[in-house]
Design brief:
Length: 513
């Protein structure tokens, strides 16, 4: 490069870096300013995580893999949904998505480069059993075997989510999750994975966000299979609870090294007023949204989610189901994105249409109950700043949720299976992605997590959602949660500033980096 170009390029780069740095402190200040009760920067900078803490990132098969019909894979309900006109924003499909099926080595190399210690990924059921039951598709097993080996070679712990929403379509055709037979089919699938991969994978979570996929899919119909019937949701959720218990036993029978936990979606809930009715409604929200799958596993019984007795008949509950559901977890994993405000309400159509923000629900006006049996009204507050997915940033919720679950379940080992935010920052003229708001978000939330740990919570891992920008369910490609930017036309990956920052955090165990 000649001298004139060298000087000009250096100036451009330095200028851009200065602009980006100024923008970073401005944004850090700006977003922190608006967060009520934000932890001051000096305290965040001093926060330290325990030695051996597992820094990680998470992804999901349908969101990243593409290759939707490769190597004998069967059709999943998400293939059917995204191939149906009018279902996904912008008519987007995940047939290619980030092409991680072919580029997993490149993606795992990013994790290694960023000093990560845990990679949470999921396995597509329809790649292993194309119709959901029957013979194993060896090519599917071989793929995930190669992925597992690559994760281990990169020095990371593989954390496998067995089911992240992509049900084989043929099982939906047989009634989907409301069909109790799926518990057995699912346990067989889980056992197959443990048999073939359990020599290398020891950390398993049966279901990602079971409340969300059952409620969204069968209760309000915004996810496949698009059914809107609260009672169908109750049946689906009960099958999933049976499946969870059966799967834990199948996994442990196939692999003596296996540990089984969870990847539940949870939201700390706060009563709208101090009235007894609102406080009781908040308890019901917590039971329905946070504990509905945890409590059956731990204690073999449903938590107190309903105003009266659980509607056992409507759920399809049979004598002895308590024993099937009970399968105490070795560790408890959950995601945290945002909080809820809850009040008591009556009415409820029985197929509540409530608002939804991506994979978080509620938020519309009105005061009707979400459904006739829980009699809760739930709001997504906007007191704090909002991400570009419209979710309120409420870092203190991390502390509240982690300490609450610790108290209520006798101080289990906890993993944060997901936490992250949507911002649409793209590469600037220098090729950098200066996503300062994402850094500010993670700094605040991680400082609250460090506070919960220093108050005694046994949290051993944190997984940022997500490794690479990807297909965000019904929102298609309109939302970007990645710490790595993906140009979906060229498949070029660019680690964002937040990814580089998170890599330094992982290397040092400190937030002030
Ligand atoms: C979670 C999902 C994950 C992703 C993030 C944004 O609810 O588990 O797949 O969509 O939300």
């Amino acid at each position: 490069m000649n001298r004139r170009n060298f000087v000009r390029n250096s100036l451009v780069t330095a200028g851009a870096a200065m602009v980006a740095d100024r923008r970073l402190s401005a944004l850090r200040f700006a977003s922190q300013e608006k967060i009520p009760g934000a932890i001051p920067d000096s305290v965040i900078d001093a926060a330290r995580f325990p030695d051996g803490f597992l820094w990680g990132m998470a992804s999901a098969s349908y969101q990243v893999e593409g290759a939707w019909d490769a190597d004998g894979k069967g059709e999943s309900i998400w293939d059917r949904f995204s191939h149906t006109v009018g279902k996904v924003k912008g008519g987007a499909m995940a047939d290619v998505s980030c092409d991680d099926y072919h580029r997993y080595k490149e993606d795992i190399a990013i994790l290694k480069r960023l000093n990560q210690k845990s990679y949470r990924f999921s396995i597509s059921w329809a790649r292993i059993q194309p119709t959901g039951t029957g013979a194993v598709n060896q090519k599917g097993i071989d793929h995930y075997s190669r992925v597992t080996d690559a994760v281990l070679e990169a020095g990371l712990r593989p954390f496998c989510t067995i089911y992240h929403w992509d049900l084989p379509q043929r099982l939906e055709d047989r009634g989907g999750w409301p069909n109790r037979d799926l518990a057995g089919y699912y346990a067989e699938f889980a056992g197959i994975l443990a048999k073939y991969l359990g020599d290398r994978i020891t950390v398993w979570a049966p279901f990602n966000m079971p409340w969300t996929f059952t409620y969204y899919g069968y209760g309000i119909g915004v996810f496949p299979p698009c059914r809107s019937d609260f009672y169908l949701f109750l049946r689906a959720a009960h099958t999933v609870n049976l499946a969870q218990g059966e799967a834990l036993r199948a996994i442990k029978a196939a692999s003596s090294k296996a540990t089984v936990g969870s990847a539940y979606g949870m939201a700390p809930a706060y009563p709208k007023t101090d009235s007894e009715a609102d406080r009781a409604a908040t308890e019901r929200y917590h039971a329905m949204n946070n504990l509905y799958f945890l409590n059956p596993a731990m204690h073999g019984e449903y938590p107190k989610a309903f105003v009266g007795e659980p509607p056992y008949d409507a759920m399809g509950y049979k004598a002895g189901d308590d024993k099937i559901m009970k399968a105490p977890l070795d560790w408890v994993g959950f995601h945290y994105y945002t909080r809820r405000i809850v009040s008591a309400a009556s009415g409820g159509a029985g197929s509540s249409g409530g608002g939804h923000f991506g994979t978080e629900t509620e938020g519309e006006g009105g005061s009707a109950a979400r459904d006739p049996l829980t009699q809760i009204h739930v709001e997504m507050p906007t007191e704090g700043p909002l991400t570009e997915a419209g979710l309120e940033i409420w870092p203190r919720g991390m502390y509240d949720l982690v300490t609450q679950i610790s108290r209520e379940y006798n101080h289990p080992v906890i993993e944060i299976s997901e936490n992250g935010c949507c911002y649409l920052d793209a590469p600037d003229e220098t090729g950098r992605v200066p996503d300062a708001r994402r850094i500010a978000f993670h700094r605040q939330i991680l400082a609250e997590l460090a506070r919960a740990i220093s108050d005694g919570a046994k949290v051993r891992a944190y997984h940022a959602w997500t490794l690479v920008d990807n297909f965000e369910w019904a929102d298609g490609y309109t939302q970007r949660y990645g710490l790595t930017y993906v140009d979906f036309r060229s498949q070029k990956r660019t680690v964002k500033d937040s990814g580089l920052w998170y890599g330094r955090v992982a290397a040092s165990g400190r937030l002030g980096v």
